[in-house]
Predict the structure.
Amino acid sequence: MTYIPNTDDERAAMLRVIGVDKVEDLFHDVPEAHRFPPLDLPRPLSEAEILAELRDMAEANADLDHVACFLGAGSYHHFVPSVVDMVISRSEFYTAYTPYQPEVSQGVLQALFEYQSMICALTEMDVANSSHYDGATATAEAVIMALNVHRRRRKRVVLSPTVHPMYRETVHTYTQGMGLNIVGEDAPLHDLKALADLIDEETCCIVVQNPDFLGRMFSPKEMKALADAAHAHKALFIVVVDPISLGFMVAPGRYDADIVVGEGQSLGSLPQFGGPYLGIFAFKKEYVRKSSGRLVGETVDAEGKRGYVITLSTREQHIRREKATSNICTNEALVAIAAAVYLAAMGKSGLRRVAELSYHKAHYAAQRIAEIDGFDLLSTWPFFKEFVVRTPAPVQEINDYLLDEWGILGGYDLSRDYPQLENAMLLCVTEMNDREEIDALVDAFKEIANGALDSTVRFYVG
Amino acid sequence: MRGPEPTIYEISSPGRRGYTLPELDVPESDIPEEFLRDRLLLPEVAEVDLVRHFVRLSQKNFGVDLGFYPLGSCTMKYNPKVNEVAARLPGFTKIHPLQDPATVQGAMQLMYELQTYLAEITGFAATTLQPAAGAHGELTGVLMMRKLIHEGRGEPHRTKVLVPDSAHGTNPATTTMSGLQVVEIPSDKRGNVDLNELKKHLDDTVLGFMLTNPNTLGLFDEHLLELTHLVHEAGGLMYGDGANLNALLGITKPADLGFDVMHINLHKTFSTPHGGGGPGSGPVVCTEELAPYLPGPIVDVEEHDDHVHYIWKMPEHSIGRVKAFWGNFGVMVKAYTYIRMLGAQGLREVAENAVLNANYLQALVKKTYPVPYGFRTCMHEFVAQGKIEGAEDVRALDIAKRLIDYGFHPPTMYFPLIVPEALMIEPTETESKQTLDAFAEALERIAEEARTQPELLKTAPHEAPVRRLDEVRAARYPKLKDVPGME
């Protein structure tokens, strides 16, 4: 199926109007030797056939309806209310382009304006843009924005080791042509004082995550002290957040963050194998003209009625070209609309409850696991929904056992990113994990403590 | 349904709820007081309020499903509904990106096959699916070129990227982001890159050339092979901006024409929708020489006796990852579905019909409006000018806004920059002759209106949810949020 409506007769009539004999004649500018190459692709399928194949591929995956998930590390299984998918399935939204023509795009524009408003409310920041690609690229864009605030004269970036490892890698990738000096990633974990000591007069920004990649929550007092240390050197204070944690945690705007970024997937999107996700990006208003990404603003129409437009575009690539603050064009608008619907559906009490449920369940799980011989809780209280457990065997072996014997997706293997955290697992608990699941995880760990791995490990070797 | 829709905050009422959540089934733990926020200014609405609000908003929005959307360079083709069903299969939406590869072999197979198809369609050796959008793919590709030239070939003095004056703004912006300098190359009278101008800049400081082909005038460069040869001879690399790949499916393979690396917009060419501005997906395909520099990991395959096993593999000299995880997987599922339903012959028909539709519409439109390159055969789009004899006050903007009253989405306006009063029109292959005829007729009637009652155009649109909006005010007095209780 090609979804092409015109018939051969209609095509013939059109060719006559153009004044050529056949469609092939329209391609005379294409070098003849390279014209009409064969494409080696599978034969076309009917809708029924492709759906059957796709179902087979989908069912070859162990999905979260069939396994208990204790895996987080930047992608989270939170509840998504039915209204979210209903709204983003409206094809007036999903088959539209970027709202360049505001008169026929008021739906997308107002929805994005409301998204921006709710992100400002959540983070207590002045301005939020209408999205970056994901938490990682939002973090990289925040670093570039800080560079631009300092007119690229300051080249030093302090980057906390407990910012998500993939976000840190993305910062390095994005800025590889900019001649930066990125420091701090080898600092002791969770040591804000050590990071503060790295800030100097050459530093354009410091980036920390709260709760950090290992789940640790830093108090507003600790964070404010770091903000003050940054501001003493006129460096920008960039905070990476988990938006769900802001259901009860003090917002970064209250401890003087300059830029707040984060992964918005938890707000109404399923993990879907890593994307599309949502880069949250909020900042103080004095930096608005150095900011990147689209902004939707309120205005009035010719009759004085309220309406919305894309605004302050002179920062953007289609106007400013090589002097733009970023090259971003397409963003994650539909995912931002999903987040707006989620935040509106949950409201102030619902988001707080999601955060509390995750917190209480995570602490319950951690306490039960800490009681098991051979399993040590490395996280100190308080953490949010993730915590670190030292395991008596390599994490991969434990996860294989959990999945095969218990139908449990275990935690993230921290040895991948932190050599000092060998045999350490980052576990995540949300409102989607009921007590039965948590107790099953505890029972499975007890079996491991009792030597369960010794009998099964042989089975997996080779 | 006319009149402003209240904001979600304006329909909020204290104590309303639009959610349910499970009861707490474990003991509570203390949350230290100092961590607790003192306010959370989110709205409070019932589910019915919420649904009506967003459905009413959707009714104030124009999408491809409502009508013709000839936005040049954006390839607003019809989005098949099977794609949406496919991407929502629970085995695709409810899998975690960090699951053990053994538990997500179906998803990895889909990615591997999509990598293979995209390489085959464009003629390249390797693919990454990680970039989230076209501009993201550009950044990826230019950083790869930079690393190959600076480190692989040991030529760090090459820091200039040549970009035609007809290029998308993302090309120069990407160059700057990559720490390189832009040199703009003018176009010649036939809309090609001016080769004489190009030659003046081809020295040992050139890292590469970023070219959209067909270009934003909708024209296939008539000297393309010579151009790519010259750039290669000077030691540079050719970047292909794949925004206009819809014109080339099954017609030619960009790798055969001398491109070294290009991005593909799955949300344009492969009809995963645009989502009101995103999500997109911007895979990057490249030659054997550039493949070790791809961001990763990408999916690779291990052959075993009785089965294959998909694995993650980091390319040897990778520029590093360009985002978290593996890319916009949900978008990949849609593009995969689309390619599998069309097959090789179907893809070629897409390009043929996209080009046929554009040339047909160009033939109709140039009767009424100037089409500066209308003496040439266009590819998937063409650029007209919003200039009407006898109505000199009327601008492209007015014509665009008046088209709304006729039920059409306006074309891209004022781009490319080298054509004054540009109206860039891309019909795509999924529009019928009737639609194209009706659009051309509307443009003719608008030209007539411009001469007889120009006010009708100057004050258009008349049939939209709002009248023309005050963009100057929006920029001068920015109001970027509205949260009761916040400054």
In short: Chain A has two domains: 68-78+347-460, 82-342. Chain A touches chain B through 213 residues (CB under 8 Å). Confidence is low (pLDDT under 50) at residues 457-462 of chain A.
